[in-house]
Design brief:
CATH topology: Pseudouridine synthase
Shape: globular
CATH class: Alpha Beta
Number of domains: 1
Radius of gyration: 17 Å
Distance between the termini: 44 Å
Largest sheet: 7 strands, mixed
CATH architecture: 2-Layer Sandwich
Number of strands: 9
Number of helices: 4
Length: 185
């Protein structure tokens, strides 16, 4: 039968505390009780959960560590940098590996906007490989076999909502992304 989940997420998303973009792999927090669900939702709302993502981007990123602080808004069906009406969005980045024609980054969003990492990277001229919506499709993505954005939620850190202990969870890259990365090496 499985483990019962908190009904607080609704019948279509029972216990699901946050979301991942379509095509993003990795960790997702799911609550087993309504109490945990509400506490975790609150923690995500005030950015008390640290999330780490791995992204393979086009080109050579100049700085080893940097942040993008650019407000995001909706324009038609896309999310865009919008300095006049956008909502505040900030993402920290750190180079994990430099490759020929690409850079593997760790992204740590400090806010939680839809498509935030994807739009921030596209805005600085380094779209995520395989991300057709934000400029990362094309020959280089096809050459390494990417059918989706190379974006993986690999790390979550937070304080357990009931016990109060620190929790850190990590998830390795899925095989398809390991293989794509190997083709760049």
């Amino acid at each position: 039968m499985g483990v019962p989940l908190a009904p607080a997420g609704g019948p279509l998303r029972p216990g699901i505390v946050h979301r991942l973009d379509v095509g993003t792999s990795g960790l997702l927090v799911v609550a087993k009780t309504d109490e945990s669900y509400e506490a975790l939702r609150s923690m995500f709302g005030v950015h008390a959960v640290e999330r780490g993502y791995l992204a393979l981007v086009r080109g050579a990123v100049a700085n080893d560590a940097f942040a993008v602080d650019a407000p995001l808004g909706r324009r038609a069906a896309k999310i865009v940098v919008d300095a006049t009406e956008g909502r505040q969005a900030e993402t920290g980045f750190e180079v994990r590996e430099r490759l020929d024609g690409a850079t593997l980054l760790e992204a740590v969003p400090r806010t939680g906007r839809t498509h935030q990492i994807r739009v921030h990277l596209a805005a600085i001229g380094h779209p995520i490989l395989g991300d057709r919506a934000y400029g990362g499709g094309g020959n280089d993505a096809r050459r390494v076999g990417l059918e989706r954005p190379f974006l993986h939620a690999w790390r979550l850190s937070f304080i357990h909502p009931v016990g109060g202990d620190p929790v850190e969870v990590v998830e390795d890259l899925p095989e398809e992304l390991v293989e794509a990365l190997a083709r760049f090496r």
